[in-house]
Amino acid sequence: MATAYSPDSGVDGRAAGQSDEDLLRRFRVKDDAAAFESLVHRYEHELFSYLRRYLGSAEMAEDVFQATFLQVYLKKENFEDGRRFRPWLYTIATNQAIDAQRRNKRHRMVSIDQRSGSGDDDVGALVEMLSGNDRTADDQMADEEARAWVRSAVDDLPEALKGAVLLVYHQGMKYREAADVLGIPVGTVKSRLHAALLKLNESWLASGRTRA
To answer: pLDDT (tens digit, 9 = 90+) per residue, 82-107?
Structure first.
């Protein structure tokens, strides 16, 4: 994947021991282009993966990735000391993705497939229902069909519920981080996740796909 602002010299060697916030501060205060490049490379895989799943298109994800870091470049002075960079970056990326969807009249969102260690019993039960150890070949085929069903079911969720699901259960964000990205209270993130899980479980039961 091509990245914006990629220097010939590669990533700044000083970046390894520095936080995201330190790198942005270097860029903002000292106009240190190497620090900015390090942020781009640091988030290249993670953010692109998020955008590809959000948008359902690698091509759109590439465009939005570039637009996101252009906004970081342009809005660096708006970043307040004491804030965390990652939620701020995801806020920009999500807003850019929404704008891209509106421009292209596309409203797809690829779901989580699996997420382990979420700490949510309901989600754990749902994931366990779709995957497990010691599966036979027939079971594995059924699992693939189940995951395809889940992807479709999540696509059908209201946009607000999909956003919360993707950030928390795919990107692994804490509730507070997801709340910052979405601009909503933590309690609203939790209620949206709960509502999404209820809808998914209801749809799953209605489909008659429950296991013995």
So the answer is: 889 999 999 999 999 988 888 775 34
Token pair of 135 as six digits: 């599966």
Cα separation of 197 and 200, whole Å?
A: 5
Of the segments 12-16, 67-71, 158-162, which one has the largest average pLDDT value? 67-71
Q: Rounded to whole angstroms, how far apart are CA atoms 135 and 133?
A: 5
CATH architecture for segment(s) 13-104 = Orthogonal Bundle (1.10)
Q: Is the pLDDT of residue 174 over 50?
A: yes
**What are the b/e assignments for 109-147, b being 16+ CB within 10 Å?**
bbbbbebeebebeebeebbebbbeeeeeeeeeeebeebb
d(CA 163, CA 193): 9
What pTM did the predictor assign? 0.58
Amino acid at 28: R
Tell me the two tokens of residue 141.
Answer: 């085929």
Q: Find where tokens 């990629």 sit.
A: 6
* Options 3.40.50.620, 3.30.450.30, 1.10.10.10, 3.40.50.720; CATH of 121-206: 1.10.10.10
Amino acid letter, residue 149: W
Contact 54, 97 (CB under 8 A): yes
d(CA 185, CA 178): 9
